[in-house]
Amino acid sequence: MIIVMDPNASMEDINKVSSCLELNGLRVNLSKGDSHMIVGVIGDASKLDSNKLLRFDGVQKIVKVEEPFKKANRLFKPDDTIVDVNGMKIGGGNLGIMAGPCSVESEEQIIEIAKDVKASGANFLRGGAFKPRTSPYSFQGLELDGLKLLKKAKEVTGLPIVTELMSTDYIDEFVENVDVIQIGARNMQNFDLLKQLGKTDKPVLLKRGLSSTIEEWLMSAEYIMAGGNENVILCERGIRTFETYTRNTLDLSAIPVVKKLSHLPVIVDPSHAAGYWYLVEPLAKAAIMAGADGLMIEVHNDPKNALSDGQQSIKPENFHDLMKKIKKIAEFEGKTI
Hints:
Blueprint: E1 2-5, H1 11-23, E2 27-32, E3 37-42, H2 50-54, E4 59-63, E5 83-85, E6 88-90, E7 96-100, H3 107-120, E8 124-126, H4 144-157, E9 161-164, H5 171-177, E10 180-183, H6 191-198, E11 204-207, H7 214-226, E12 232-236, H8 254-261, E13 266-268, H9 270-274, H10 280-289, E14 294-298, H11 316-332
Parallel strand pairs: 7-8, 7-14, 8-9, 9-10, 10-11, 11-12, 12-13
Antiparallel strand pairs: 1-3, 1-4, 2-3, 5-6
């Protein structure tokens, strides 16, 4: 349920409504729109008398929220959420371009790639220190040593770090050293991990699960937001379908659907969606045209010898050419990088 207050409602009017709700064991989420204050009601409001609430001064109307996600719902917050990461903004017309290797392999490698992607216009450095792999025999990442190398690359380039967290064991290290904590597709419904991230104020990049519906994806975001952390960025990275030619099937329709349902920014990972480097450019361009708030692209200086996902990584020179086109599309769409 949301309560829409009259534009002329005073803070005293809003506080009286909020107090009534809290006395009934409900939580309140206040959101200021362009012209109205929205009072979002979180909890079981089925026993509330709507007619009684309408008698409060300043209450304009009451709207029932059918979806199970509340804080992530656009009804609760009509304006787009803008996530600010060290001055770099994602959402509300600001594009976040996250680029870098699938895995951190060495100090020389990550610093060289970080310099290249920054020169091309990327405003975030992505790189895996901990790598979830289908096979236990595949390269699992450099772990904490990889995190240290990402920090060195940040010192050299100034790019904020985006990297994946797989376990609650390392939350403290990630909160201290990482700028955007990525939750991968396999952990989208690791609710214990999401709850712990909700207790932090660190921006979280939440990837859609391999076989998850849009509602399930938004409910996972709700877990983080319900804990108090509203700095959530959604990432569409392709879903598993009957098609086997590509690694996954990129669901471009998810972008406008999420934009309609939620105020959270949504970016696209064309690298994991396609699984092939030559599909990254067309899917990246299509994603921006479809309304995405950014991209996550795998870039490697030697894809043939990459320790993971080399087949879907583009070379720095290809990324440079792609960024020229993305900037033109962003300008056409009225967005900035």
